[in-house]
Structures are given as C-alpha cells and as structure tokens.
C-alpha cells in the first residue's frame, strides 16, 4: 500500500478499513484468559466513538492526554482516539509510584488522565480530570466504556500534519528525571513502513505483543508495521514465561518481539513447544551463545538480534532477515539508516575500536523530534542530523556491530577502560550463575573498584572467592572484580533491563 497520501496514524487506519474492514485486526487476552476481539472496522468505530467522547471533554489538537493503563483493548482505543484528534498520547508505566506520576503529569502538562480504578489514588490532589476506562460505580461521567456505547462514530475534522507530535514517550529515568521523547505522526508512519519492510511482513502476519505497550517496542516494531501491511495483532495484558509459546500457538502468531530477560525466563519456565506458527522473533540485549542456541532448538524459532532506542524510532541496526545472522552482534545498518561509531571528539573510530553508536536521520521522521521541554538534552543528543546514543559498540572484521556497553556503564579503573558488559558476559558463562551486573564503586586509591552482583541458578551455591577465581581464569587481571555480592534478583525496568542505578551504593560495600 502506498503511503504517499497518508499524513497521520488515523489516515493509515482509515485506509486499511477501506481495504479490509471485515478482517480480524486485534485480539486481547487479559490475565484471566478472557479474549476481546475486533475487526478493523469494529476497532475504527470504537476509536471514533472514544475520540468524540474525548472531544466532549474539551480535548483538542495539541492537548496532552496521559494514559495509565495496562496492555488492553482500552489502551489501543485510547492511543488511536487521542492521535485521531491531533492530540498527544502520554503513555506511562502502571508500576510507577505516585511521586513519579506527579512529575510526569506536571511535566507533560497533561489535560486529561485515562486510567483504571485501582490506580486512581496515584492522581489524587492533582488539578487534572481523571476518566476511567471501565468503572463499576454509578457515575457514568467517569466511565469511558459506557460513554463510548452512547457516542456516535462520525469522524471529526482531520487537519493533522505529519510532523505534528503524536506521543511523548518518557524514558525510564534510572539515573535522572525521565526525558519525554517527542514522536510525530511521521515517526510512527516511518516505523510502520521501515519495520514491515525489514521484516518482510505481509497481511498474513500476526504479531504477538507481550511487552508493555507504554514502551516504544510494541508500538514501533509490531503495531505500526502490522497495520501498514494490514496484518493482525494479538496482545496480552501481561507477559507469562510459561504461557508464551502456548499463546503464540493459540493465536497463530507469526512474529514476536522480546528482550533478554523474558527470554531467560522462558528458557527457565516454559515447556518445549515446537508446533507453533512463529517464523521469527526479534530481540534485544545480550544472551550467551548457549542460551541463543538453546532457545532456537528448544522452541524451533528463528531469532534476530536488533538495536534501537525510543529516540531512533526504527532499528538502525539489525541482523538480516535473509543472509547471515550473527546474533551475538546487533547486526548491520538497516536500509535507509547510516550508522557510525564516534570517539569523544565526534570523529569516526577505526574498525575494532570502541566508539559511540551514532545514527544519521531526519528529525521528526526517522529520528525523534526532540525531548519535550529540554532543549539542552536535545542539542546534546541531536547534532547536524546525527543522533548520539550514548551506547558504545565496535565493528569487527565481519562488518557487524557488537554492543559493548552504555557509556555511563564504562568504568575507568587505574587508567584502564573496562566495559562492564564484558565482565558480565564472562560471569554469565559460569554454569551456576543465572545473571550478573557489574558496577564501579568509589576507591580512594584507584578511583574506581569493580563490584559484581550475582544471581545464582536455582539450587546452586558459590562462594565469593570461587567467583573471583573464575574471573581470574577467564579475563585480564585488571578486569577482575574485587567485590562480589549475591542477590536473589535484580531490580529491573518494565522491559527487563537491570537498573544499575539502584545497584550502585556510593562506595558502601556489604560483605
């Protein structure tokens, strides 16, 4: 389908309704196993009705509407209804505490909040109206579901420009206040066209989304590309390691998207399921060679490691769908993206040298428009059509990019630069270690010492001395951690990343 005359998310949805209105578009399974379904036409009608309810509440073009919802059909209706008005969706993590929500509501200047009853207390005392996606009480004014039943499905006027902001996606904010990434309608359309092309999606494809929808992954990599080609979506309220492949089988899913942490959980908990329809699962973050091989063999599925950020919209680096896949790498530059590795002075480094991943693109189309109300951070990240990711990688002789570490996770110890991810990779190869995180802590002599935090596999035992001896046998002496701490589990973000900021202890060592 040509996107030549499509300027907004609503335009794209309307075009697919014209072509395949009776086709099943969306299936949503809640935690109790109940499934709601909608064809393209049914989904569009609900979007228009909710859009008219929001318009009655005074929502207009440019207004911010904050969503505090789990994965649900309500989230999907709200996303498309808000953007169909030219308003701006601000999706947030349902696990965020009240203090963080205070900041996000204030910083985003949200005019309206859509949530569920169990989260209402987080918004008490705020001078912003709260509407409930579903409400068991008698006040119909609060109940969006009831009001949608009574609303008409006549489309509102659509004067949306492709460079209008469609969403503000807040970063995790593990080391500072979250930054609001401004995403335009053109960004979403690019994500749909680019990812569907790179993954060769067709109208026969069905994506299984289990990661939280407030995050860019489910929006960029599956929802938008599947709408672009007229495919279908299966969405689950929560990720379940034990049920993942059973759900894929039941929904006839052909493509999925995961992170390393959920994949490790699947390996640990899921039964072997091989008679599913999956052809590919894209994933991000590192696994060991053994884990990758075990996953592909155990579940009979092809894996493709990718690299992308909320700010890059699409995946500037990914393993090829056709050709040589090297899933210990983050792949090669995708069609339409230019990627280079730069040093502290912005100069391109030689192959084999570590440099910052730097992505060329167009603001508001292939790259984010910028950070909301943060001109300083925008200027630091976007320079002359290049986005500086603060992620380090290196290009080896095979031409593939290999992720090294976040710049903030690189440790300079006694004059030597150490990628903590390299030490973690060695630790994770130990047969008794399930996962690890290495951090730098203050040291009066060497400025920084290394501390490894380790989670053991179930039923296994190791001493601190055994971990250190293992490291001494497998990595250079200056990379061996001085301190070891065993944990039951790691604090993680909603997409499974270890929150290292919560692990750093300002030099206090627990022995």
UniProtKB/TrEMBL annotation:
Q: What is this protein called?
A: Crotonobetaine/carnitine-CoA ligase
- What does the record give under GO molecular function? medium-chain fatty acid-CoA ligase activity
A Gene Ontology biological process noted in the UniProt record is: fatty acid metabolic process
Q: Enumerate the SUPFAM superfamilies for this protein.
A: Acetyl-CoA synthetase-like (SSF56801)
Family membership:
Belongs to the ATP-dependent AMP-binding enzyme family.
Q: Which UniProt keywords apply?
A: Ligase
Q: Which organism is it from?
A: Alkalihalophilus marmarensis DSM 21297
Cite the AMP-dependent synthetase/ligase domain residue spans from the record. Answer: 14-372
Q: Which Pfam families match?
A: AMP-binding, AMP-binding_C
* AMP-binding enzyme C-terminal domain sequence ranges: 422-497
Q: What is the lineage of its organism?
A: Bacteria, Bacillati, Bacillota, Bacilli, Bacillales
């Amino acid at each position: 389908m040509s996107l030549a005359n499509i300027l907004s998310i609503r335009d794209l949805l309307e075009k697919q309704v014209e072509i395949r209105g009776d086709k099943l578009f969306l299936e949503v399974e809640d935690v109790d196993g109940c499934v709601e379904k909608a064809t393209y036409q049914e989904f569009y009608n609900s979007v228009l009705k909710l859009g008219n309810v929001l318009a009655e509440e005074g929502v207009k073009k440019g207004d911010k509407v904050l969503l505090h919802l789990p994965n649900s059909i309500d989230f999907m209706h709200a996303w498309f209804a808000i953007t169909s008005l030219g308003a701006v969706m601000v999706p947030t993590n349902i696990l965020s505490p009240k203090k963080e929500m205070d900041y996000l509501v204030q910083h985003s200047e949200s005019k309206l909040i859509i949530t569920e009853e169990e989260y209402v207390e987080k918004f008490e005392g705020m001078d912003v109206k709260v509407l409930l996606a579903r409400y068991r009480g008698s006040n119909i004014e609060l109940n969006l579901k009831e009001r949608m039943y009574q609303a008409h499905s006549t489309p509102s006027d659509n004067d949306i420009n492709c460079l209008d902001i469609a969403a503000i996606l807040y970063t995790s904010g593990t080391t500072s206040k979250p930054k609001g990434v401004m995403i335009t309608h053109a960004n979403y359309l690019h994500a749909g066209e680019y990812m569907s092309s790179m993954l060769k999606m067709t109208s026969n494809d069905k994506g299984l989304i289990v990661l939280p929808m407030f995050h860019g992954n489910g929006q960029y990599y599956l929802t938008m590309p599947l709408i672009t080609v007229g495919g279908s979506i299966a969405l689950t309220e929560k990720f379940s390691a034990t049920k993942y492949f059973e759900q894929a089988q039941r929904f006839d899913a052909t493509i999925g998207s995961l992170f390393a942490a959920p994949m490790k959980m699947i390996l640990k908990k899921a039964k072997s399921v091989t008679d599913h329809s999956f052809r590919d699962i894209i994933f991000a973050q590192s696994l060991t060679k053994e884990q990758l091989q075990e996953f592909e063999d155990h579940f009979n599925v092809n894996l493709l490691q990718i690299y992308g950020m909320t700010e890059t919209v699409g995946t500037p680096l990914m393993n090829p769908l056709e050709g040589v896949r090297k899933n210990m790498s983050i792949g090669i530059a995708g069609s339409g993206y230019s990627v280079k590795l730069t040093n502290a002075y912005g100069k391109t480094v030689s192959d084999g040298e570590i440099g910052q991943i730097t992505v060329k693109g167009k603001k508001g189309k292939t790259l984010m428009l910028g950070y909301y109300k943060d001109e300083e951070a925008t200027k630091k990240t976007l320079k002359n059509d290049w986005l500086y990711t603060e992620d380090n990688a290196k290009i080896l002789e095979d031409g593939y990019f290999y992720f090294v570490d976040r710049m903030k996770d690189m440790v300079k110890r006694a004059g030597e630069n150490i990628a903590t991810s390299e030490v973690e990779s060695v630790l994770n190869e130990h047969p008794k270690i399930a996962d690890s995180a290495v951090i730098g802590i203050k040291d009066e002599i060497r400025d920084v010492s290394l501390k490894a935090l380790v989670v053991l596999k179930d039923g296994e035992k190791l001493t601190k001395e055994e971990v250190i001896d293992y490291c001494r046998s497998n990595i250079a002496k200056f990379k061996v951690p001085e301190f070891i701490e065993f944990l039951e589990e790691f604090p993680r973000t909603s997409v499974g990343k270890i929150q290292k900021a919560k692990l750093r202890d300002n030099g206090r060592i627990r022995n």
